[in-house]
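Risk register update: the risk of archive-format incompatibility is retired. Evidence:
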Amino acid sequence: MTAAADIVALLEDSLWLGFLVFLRVAATVSLLPAFGEQSVPMRIRLMLGLAFTVIVAPAIDFALPEVTVGTLALFALTETVSGLLIGLGLRLFILALQTAGAIAAQSTSLSQIMGGAAIEPLPAMGYILTVGALALAALSGLHIKAAQLMILSYDILPVGLFAGGTDVAQWGIAQISRAFSLAFVLAAPFVLMSVIYNLTLGVINKAMPQLMVAFVGAPVITLGGLFILFLAAPSMLAVWLGALDQFMLAPFEITP
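Archived output:
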């Protein structure tokens, strides 16, 4: 009977620990790139949350609080908020890539092609870059890095405590700023080509006012945009993946 009681107590502690870990992990997985996309069915995302919980829970070591209604409500809030903070930081990298695709498409007059091909309407370039980035991240071991990030988060965001409002605000502003900087860096070749193209059209139009330069130049800018996408996409995705890896190693570091 004593052994049975010990086993029951151990099971209760394990279930309570698993529940607390699941709250944070599920919130993170719901926004995790590739695993948390809207195209992934809800049941699959639930199973992914459970799978990550099984991986993360044995690596967590903290004193389990007594199970009460107040404790349950407090931990449900703190753990969910902590998971959402981590997930939002990761989701900003997808938004940065989509913004880069939108800038590139607008610069090359391709912003309306395949605009509704995704669940979230994207230009063709944004859709191609997003799919390629998700595939690259998954192939580079995103699931392992995500599990390590979730384990690391318990050292920075302790269980049962809310992050400071000032710290979260500063961190959020820094992450948004970094996302827009990354988006512009990725789209820089297309913006540069657009500037050169428009300057060239202006010179030609000044020299030959009778020539309809817009009709002549439209195929050029479209073909040039596709050609630059073909050449620059591998480098763009490599830069994006490097930024994502850097964030996952130090998720709450505020870089200037």
